[in-house]
Amino acid sequence: MAICHNRIRVKILDAKQEIKCCPTSFAYCRTSNHLSLSLSAPVVARGCTDVFCCILFILAILGYFAVGILAWSQGDPRKVIYPTDSRGQFCGQAGTPLEKKPLLFYFNILKCASPLTLLEFQCPTTQLCVESCPTKHMTLLKAYLNKGEQEYYKQFCKEGVDFSKMSAPEILRDGLCPSMLMSSKPFTRRCLPALSTMKGGVVVVGNETIFDNGEGEKVNATDFLDASKKSNVVVEARQVAMRIFEDYTVSWYWILIGLVIAMVVSLIFIVLLRYLAGIMIWVMIVMVILVIGYGIFHCAMEYRSLKGEPGSDVTIRDLGLQTDFSVYLQIRQTWLAFMIILSIVEVVVILLLIFLRKRVLIAIALIKEASRAVGHVMSSLFYPLLTFALLALVIAYWAITAVFLSTSNEQVYKVFNTTECNYSRDTCNPETFNTTNITARCPDAECLFAFYGGETYYHKYLILFQFYNVFLFFWCANFVTALGQVTLAGAFASYYWAFKKPDDIPANPICSSLGRALRYHTGSLAFGSLILSLVQVIRVLLEYLDQKLKAAQNRFAKFLLSCLKCCFWCLEKFIKFLNRNAYIMVAIYGKSFCTSARDAFFLLMRNIIRVAVLDKVTDFLLFLGKLLIVGIVGICSFFFFSGRIKAVEQTAPSLNYYWVPILTVVVGSYLIAHGFFSVYAMCVDTLFLCFCEDLERNDGSPERPYFMSPELHEILSKTKMAEEEDNKDVNQNKTSTNGENEQCLH
């Protein structure tokens, strides 16, 4: 074997032919006639990288499964679905004695107006599961004296009440029955007073304003209003959730149709981009401007149409937080805010296009080259489906585990009373409570179900299991994303480093790249995703602290927390950028994560101007493509679900909040478009890094030819011209500034 100007001369016995091999890691060899591929590019002769991180990741996954199994054995999701009575029993649960009693009844709803409700999330009154809510006002004394009403009244009392053996005062003393009933309606499976307002703002319950509470006192109907609000403080979010769930049940198939349309539009756009890249980019730019412009026009028309309407001049601040979000669309300020936001976006997009017009032309040429790469690796367009499936699996496992962990506590009972008592909020046992001295010292005290908790080791460390669940969710989700990036990068790198395209491209580049990533680089992917996950968990903790400190008056703490949140946000963005390019280098060279990250960083720093000219402008254009698809699908779904298309007005489902399916379709459309366009983005980033590497290793001579295509080489020339123009402009500015300074001196 002889050395020939940095080429290694190898003799292949089978072919009886000498081949000159380039001393790069790409394993390409040059014969006398052309460059041929001796081994599949990128590097095939690899070894396992970051083995320690691979082992750590496998152990973490096993621990994650153990936490899931433990949570599933201890948890009970029924606690989220069904309301519970004072003994912690589920109302309306199938297969239990309370199966036919789905509603929760409060003995004294007025006690729910206590501030204790906000602190303990529990009304300090007896709660009972009933079949139906009371429909009339009645006192215990009235029912006790009228035998015809006793059976009706007993269904709202505890079991075992015998009106013939106990007097009314004894029943009230033992807390077996409520002192009175009032007309109520079921609301989020709870019996709340049937409040209504007559003309003049008078609050009534069943056409009555004054009630006898059964203890010789008169109660005003307005007192029940505050009690109802306080009793519903915990379930208000559940009310919104149930309405949203109802909307999903009647519109899920329309949502699926909208997402399928988004997928079809994205696929058509990508296919057209493959053959008509230049035209499609310009069409996309114009369409984005038009779609945003239409949004501004629509908001202006809505703003104008509400002029003079009653209540339309109410401000969002005065309106406050409302569970019925459609109320906000009835005030002019909402549409004015939308119009201002869209106008700012429109101006920013137009200004960017004006100032980056030369870069846009260069970026379009790079997208054309990426289109050719995608055309030769068409299977890459369907790889995002695998990423979506894996991410859905990770999210589902995390959500189910979180629900089981949060519902794996035991029933905790506490002492509730309305007067001052030393035993207030102490734990108690409902079975033996009446035999203790607490009832003697605190006559009005009751042992009621408070919340779910526990004193075992499992319950003590439950918060750690929740934290582990969140951390592993981030780690697994980032690993799935990293796996997709490495797979696509390896496939597109094999396209770039094929000297004769498409003859030298491997048969199944996506499958080959996926196999290499899992076999050799699981540790590197786990290492990169671990670093990113740590930063994301810190950001979650900072958000948690921010929520806790909102009521605090320490301005320095708030300022420091805001600075930390900003710093870690920037750090997360930088790590994502570095990881992405590090994974490309891992896919090409097969080196460890740290080595690949270092090589990628310094390679980008040596080509920082090209990064700004080519890579980022291309990302901006692809983002406009995603924005266009989301805008088209979003506008169509808005007109459909809001019933503004007369032709399909009867077809549209009846909804509580029509923004629920619209928002779902918009978010889903963005994810789908992002999935398809991420293939292009990864292709552009991979070609760009390979392009920079090719420039540094080769000079275009016959001995060291470029692997880039002539079209990509033309982009290089345009980039150089752009750099020279920038330098020329800078020099001219410096010269003019110096001349002005000299004139000033003279």
UniProtKB/TrEMBL annotation:
<feature type="region of interest" description="Disordered">
    <location>
        <begin position="722"/>
        <end position="746"/>
    </location>
</feature>
<feature type="transmembrane region" description="Helical">
    <location>
        <begin position="335"/>
        <end position="356"/>
    </location>
</feature>
<keyword id="KW-0325">Glycoprotein</keyword>
<keyword id="KW-0496">Mitochondrion</keyword>
<feature type="transmembrane region" description="Helical">
    <location>
        <begin position="43"/>
        <end position="72"/>
    </location>
</feature>
<feature type="transmembrane region" description="Helical">
    <location>
        <begin position="381"/>
        <end position="405"/>
    </location>
</feature>
<feature type="compositionally biased region" description="Polar residues">
    <location>
        <begin position="730"/>
        <end position="746"/>
    </location>
</feature>
<dbReference type="InterPro" id="IPR007603">
    <property type="entry name" value="Choline_transptr-like"/>
</dbReference>
<dbReference type="GO" id="GO:0015297">
    <property type="term" value="F:antiporter activity"/>
</dbReference>
<comment type="function">
    <text>Choline transporter.</text>
</comment>
<dbReference type="Pfam" id="PF04515">
    <property type="entry name" value="Choline_transpo"/>
</dbReference>
<keyword id="KW-1133">Transmembrane helix</keyword>
<feature type="transmembrane region" description="Helical">
    <location>
        <begin position="655"/>
        <end position="682"/>
    </location>
</feature>
<protein>
    <recommendedName>
        <fullName>Choline transporter-like protein</fullName>
    </recommendedName>
</protein>
<dbReference type="GO" id="GO:0005886">
    <property type="term" value="C:plasma membrane"/>
</dbReference>
<keyword id="KW-0812">Transmembrane</keyword>
<keyword id="KW-0813">Transport</keyword>
<dbReference type="GO" id="GO:0005741">
    <property type="term" value="C:mitochondrial outer membrane"/>
</dbReference>
<feature type="transmembrane region" description="Helical">
    <location>
        <begin position="620"/>
        <end position="643"/>
    </location>
</feature>
<keyword id="KW-1003">Cell membrane</keyword>
<feature type="transmembrane region" description="Helical">
    <location>
        <begin position="252"/>
        <end position="273"/>
    </location>
</feature>
<keyword id="KW-0050">Antiport</keyword>
<keyword id="KW-0472">Membrane</keyword>
<comment type="similarity">
    <text>Belongs to the CTL (choline transporter-like) family.</text>
</comment>
<keyword id="KW-1000">Mitochondrion outer membrane</keyword>
<feature type="transmembrane region" description="Helical">
    <location>
        <begin position="470"/>
        <end position="498"/>
    </location>
</feature>
<feature type="transmembrane region" description="Helical">
    <location>
        <begin position="279"/>
        <end position="297"/>
    </location>
</feature>
<keyword id="KW-0597">Phosphoprotein</keyword>
